[in-house]
Amino acid sequence: MRKFLILTLALLVLLPTNSSAYFVQMSESAGSTMEQRREERLQRRLAKREGEELMTIRLGRSVRQVASPRRLTWGQQVKVIEAVDGSILRVTTTAGDVVGVRILGAEAPLLINPAANVQCYAREARDILGSRTIQQLVTLEKDPNYRTDANGNWVRTVRLGTQDIGAWMIAGGYAFADTRHDYAKRSLYMTLEDEAREADRGLWSTDCDYKVHTDYRE
């Protein structure tokens, strides 16, 4: 810009008056054009920044409402083929292996022998879990503190889409919250259990005699 002005002034000195007026007009026009372009660039930058801020806000809301995309990426997708009881699923992996999966943090009444040793609401818990998950693709999320249980079942958080199956079972009164172990959702699961008990849902109804979440283990 400085070089342009110096050249313009030199031409004004050398050229006739009418030519000088022409170059003054040209100089003013060029300066106006450059200012206009600068203003347009500024407006584009502001618009882009506003768009990025709006996108950040939307992403923030989404993260609070649904499962973390990063956690879902870390998860393993499997297909459910059987509900063994209200806490354990049998699944097939993408490699074709069949494995048992215990739902981390959700413990349903025991279904040791369907014909004999059955705790109250054990069959109902198994049936509702099966109806929700069998033949569905679910995502297994691994907790770094847990791998398998005593029977070799994988211990995982189970998600169907964005739904936490363990939380869903506890909230519906089909499972207890595990209070013996420490895991990320322990506090949430215990709150869901309290709400289910207060509402007399499922195993907390008068059909069963569970008074606290440890009764079924005795």
Could you explain how this protein is built, in words?
The chain has 218 residues and is α+β, with helices and mostly antiparallel strands. It has 2 domains: 2-65, no CATH class; 71-217, OB fold (Dihydrolipoamide Acetyltransferase, E2P), CATH 2.40.50.90. The chain is built from 6 helices and 8 strands; from the N terminus they run H-H-H-E-E-E-E-H-E-E-E-H-E-H. The chain has helices at 2-14, 17-65, 69-74, 122-133, 165-171, 186-198, and strands spanning 76-83, 88-92, 98-103, 106-107, 137-142, 154-160, 163-164, 176-177. Strands 1-2-3-6-5 form a 5-stranded mixed barrel. Strands 4-8 form a two-stranded antiparallel sheet. A hairpin with a 4-residue loop joins strand 1 and strand 2 (88-92). Helix 1 packs antiparallel against helix 2 (17-65) and helix 5 packs parallel to helix 6 (186-198). The chain is elongated.
